[in-house]
Amino acid sequence: MKEENDKRNWLSPTAIWRRIKSIAQARAQLGWTGTRVFLLLVVATVAVIALLVAMAPEPELVAQEETAWEVNTMVAEPAAIAPELRLVGRVETPRVSSLASALAAEVREVSAVEGQHVERGDVLVVLDDRDARLMAEQRRADVEEARANLASLQLAGKDDQATLEHQRKLVELTLKDLKRHKELRQNSAVSETLFDTIERQAHQQAIALRQAEGAVEDFANRLAMSEARLRRSQALLAEAELAVQRTRIRSPYHGRVARVVVAPGERVGPGEVVVDVYDTAALEVRAQIPGRALATVRNALGAGTATSLPAKLLTQPILDASLNRLSGQVDSGTAGVDGLFRVQGGATLLEVGRVVELELHLPAVDSVIAAPEQAIFGEDRVYLVEEGRLRGVTVERVGRADGEQGERVLIRSADIHAGAQILTTQLGNAMTGLRVATEDPPEDASSEVSNAAVAAR
Length: 457
Hints:
Low-confidence stretches: 441-457
Radius of gyration: 56 Å
Shape: rod-shaped
Number of helices: 7
Helix content: 25-40%
Oligomer: single chain
Mean pLDDT: 79
Largest sheet: 6 strands, antiparallel, barrel
């Protein structure tokens, strides 16, 4: 080995240059007379170098062994798993009441505070009720007057009935007297003047009888008018009393105060908003359902398989929600449709307008595999380990699911069969054909997520 190294050093360019340089120095010492000798020496040196290079042994070629990358795998076990869809939504409610003043009055007291929880019937704002009470007193006097007029009319009706009976008797007497005088006139027992007087009295009694009959016949109309005036007065009194009650503005339901507009001492007019209240029992979360899951959600709600889809508010883990319906319109520039989630229980913990994160549980999907996030390369690619080498497979993302080992991505592909080894180590140089060395995969690596998800649904 030492001799071989010496020969290699002697044949190095540095060593050759040194020898040529020494020969050139020797030539300079010989002068022009030794040129031929110098050339002969150079030719001899080159010949010796070429001979030595040709006789040098060739180095042995050592074959480089291919590297096998240590990786972890999981066993593919397709199963029916319910995907979980992560959504971001905003809390809103269809029942928001803008409570307004019903009359022109001064604000006397404001007990409502923004954000305050109130019960149905709680007084929020008190208006000055003096004007309303004075009007109520006037309306009450009108009712009493109308009631007295009605009573007087009823008495007059009784008198008219009695007068009519007397007028009928008087007419009968007058007619008898007229008949007797008519017989006497035929016998010339009475004068024409007396007969005319008796006949005039008979006509007057007939007129009086007709007037009495008219009064009795018109009594029903006058009674109806009087009763109508009484009812009108009573309605005006009820309106005035209602105005008195409306000076105390109350909460229409169990809810929360969203906004207070007025302060004590201000004067408000009819229809002017004083406070906003929303119903906490009707809180909803509006979240957009992505287009890839829209068909599944529509089928679940429209096919009668479920009246609602369960969901969980991740922002408030103690609260549950359910997707009851989809919005009837799509905002411009969006591909999905808004879903309306009804909050169930504990809605007082949420505020209108708050942004929350929720998890929608979709119906179970057959033949999906629960894989860890690190098993996914890019957006839709996984690698199978077959005979110590990788093979890339394109998969479809179905959703996500939570299990004992954490969150899993649900994938589906016709090229992945039960028992296949799926790469779960993120390799920067992963490609089809790459040699790998696998460790023993954990037993039931994906079945824990699958079984847990199926049992939970």
